[in-house]
Prior knowledge:
48% of the residues lie in helices and 21% in strands.
Amino acid sequence: MQEAAPRSSPIIVITGTPGTGKTTHAQLLAEHSPVSLQHINISELVKEKALHDGFDEEWQSYVVDEDKVVDELEPLVEAGGLILDWHACDAFPERWVDLVVVLQCNHTQLWDRLEDRGYPLKKIQENNEAEIMNVVLEEAREAYAEEIVIPLQSESTEDLESNVSRIVQWIEAWQKNQKLDSGS
């Protein structure tokens, strides 16, 4: 079996409890990245491509078929250059991912953000408990190598700008390492 050629651009997962700023971070990163990165909002992809097993009325969300999501993304992964934006990260194969950014937010602020979105009380409570218990961070740490999982606070515009700047610096270092590894 032939080994895959190294990617010229990384695959970055931006994850966190709903309301932590994943999509905003991903959009800003796509604009400021030193390499071309395609932002894929997995929740939108699930709706557009019907990668689900129906809609759950109680939770007001789609029941995602993770296998269908992975199959849909597989052809894009080889080239790299992706920002995968989703509240779950452990569905993505470890071999795909170069960096996992876990956004975190103070639970009181998160509650307000989810309330502003019109989420049902039960969904707000569940997501708030998940944030307090660091569920997404723990899932990321269980699914990926420790050194590629980076938790970042996401409570203000300053946090957003600082986080994107930090990820851009990571991308620049990743590019240099790729060049060194390939002998260029």
